[in-house]
Amino acid sequence: MPRTAAPLAHDEDHWRAIARQFDIDPGPINLENGYFGRMTRKVAEEYQHNIQWVNRSNSVHVRQRFEQIEALQIRGQLAALLEAPENAVALTRCASDALQSLIRNYNRLQPGDQVLLSDLEYDTVKSAMRWLARHRGVEVIEIEHQHPASFDSLVDTYTSAFERYPRLKLMPLTYVTHRSGLVMPVQAIAAAAREHQVDIILDGAHALGQIEFDLPQLGIAFAGFNLHKWIGAPLSLGFIYIHPERLEDIDPDMGEFHFPTDDIRARTPYSTPNIPALMTLPLVFEEHRAMGGSAAKGARLNYLRATWTEAVRETPGIEILTPKDPRLCCAISALRFTRHADQQALVERLLRDYNLFAVTRTGAGFGPCIRITPGLVTPLEHIQCLIRALGELANQ
């Protein structure tokens, strides 16, 4: 009988076998797996093979087969992975491209309307929303979330904003915040937004591959995702999602004409894509499922995250910025050393003294932090190294 994701998360032998599917250079222990994910050895080899094949065959293969057959098959497989209609998805270079397309082409805004922006959104999304103020004549309402956050405080912050600003029409919402890994209660926030006729554009960049979700059940009509983080695809792959019933609310991108106006692919810029990378996706999806999909990956990553956060949560001099509530957690988490103003200096100490690579993040209301992100190849002993390092640094 197949083992469920929860007990499998603790099985170091199982995950060592998974790790052996990847090529890893010697060097610092990587605890910055949130930037982008590794391809397995097999996917990397397939990618190289595809580069050589496309280079040899050039436009003959691309025009005769890829554009007419393979690209459509890949799109269908992506839709199946998401359990969405095929006409609800279109491939892009990344989540940011998808989100920018949705924001600039959302056509239900009028001068004088308001859009909502929180401190936890991705910087590219923040700049795109502020662009709307200059080019659409809307007012940007900026809010800051309470820290420490709770499920109820996150929902209440949005509900209060909806009630206070009745001209609100649109807001981005990051499913997994890139600074601290906080998982937003999307379904509850979307329900409150719907009551106040506020549309949500969901930033799913870090969610796909580590969180199981159903977009219609969440109440989301517009979203952008990455395929190069937790799914395991080559860099430069993402996609846009628009519920088919809401397609008319997003204009074709800058008058895009290569596809009919009732085709979601007209909502993204038309350009020559990374064809060899796209050709790896059938294998990427196959391997994702073979590893147990988002359920198994998410359980493992949450186990590693919980191991280190709970080991140091009560340590004097350390503040864990991600709540304990399992509904609000994923692979990514963050901390700060409360006795030190310069968090970057501590990141440098982690690397120099303990061979642990992490990064700082700024821009949220809670201030600078150190982001820690284990990956699928991270063994428990690397997490134990982190725990020891944090304990020692906290006492200095």
UniProtKB/TrEMBL annotation:
Q: Please, which domain of life does this record's source organism belong to? A: Bacteria
Alphabetized UniProt keyword annotations: Aminotransferase, Pyridoxal phosphate, Transferase
Q: What is the lineage of its organism?
A: Bacteria, Pseudomonadati, Pseudomonadota, Gammaproteobacteria, Pseudomonadales
> Which Pfam families does the entry mention?
Aminotran_5
Concerning Gene3D superfamilies, the annotation shows:
Aspartate Aminotransferase, domain 1, Type I PLP-dependent aspartate aminotransferase-like (Major domain)
Query: Cross-referenced PANTHER family, in alphabetical order?
Result: BLR1280 PROTEIN, L-CYSTEINE DESULFHYDRASE
Query: Which SUPFAM superfamilies does this UniProt record tie to the protein?
Result: PLP-dependent transferases
GO molecular function, a single term = transaminase activity
Name of protein = Aminotransferase class V-fold PLP-dependent enzyme
Chain ranges of the Aminotransferase class V domain = 41-344
What species does this protein belong to?
A: Pseudomonas idahonensis
